[in-house]
Design brief:
The chain is an alpha/beta fold. It has 5 helices and 9 strands; from the N terminus they run ββαββββαβααββα. It is 21% helix and 16% strand. Strands 1-6-7-8-9 form a 5-stranded mixed sheet. Strands 2-5 form a two-stranded antiparallel sheet. α2 packs across α4.
Amino acid sequence: MFFRKPDWWWDWTWTPVSGCRPVSDGCKYCWSLPWLKCHTWQTETVYTGAIEEAVDGSVRWTGDATALRPGDPMWNFPLTTFRDGVVNPALGPGKPNLIFAVVDGDLFLEGRPTEDINRVCRTLVASKHLGLLCSKYIRQMVDHLALLDPRSVPRWQSKLLLALVPKIRNGLTGGGRTCVHWPRLDGLCTSHSRHCLGR
């Protein structure tokens, strides 16, 4: 049984792919890098190759797009382990869970294989949850979505919330978010989640 932490405006995170690179001054405030520096793993992870230690001891993005190995059970996390979600969803009782995908990295990083982007999105769409995808790579996101098979667009619209993060605002990475309003999501958000999502 999973419980959402009270200060989260999402229900859970899922990072089957990683990798990023600085694209603005705001990126120096990225919270992912200090978090990743505090964690060590004994085996290869999705972060292997995505981050490296700099001469000054800090951690930085390599700019490489990484992904879990084929067959890693975490690829199916929204469909298996997290199938039933949290008991206290952020969107309210009886509402779907909101999975914040690729928190440590950017799904639409330039150079990421299309197959990896599609696998993340298709897994979220196949789950009974909603996926939240935040990106600073707005052009890559728009270009990718423009190539979708028109028959799949309504299903993706009903399951994915897209948040475009401006390159810099108030000196903070992610200081402001602009949501792409896909109509089927509008009725699902509580006033709390709309405020947190910048809607």
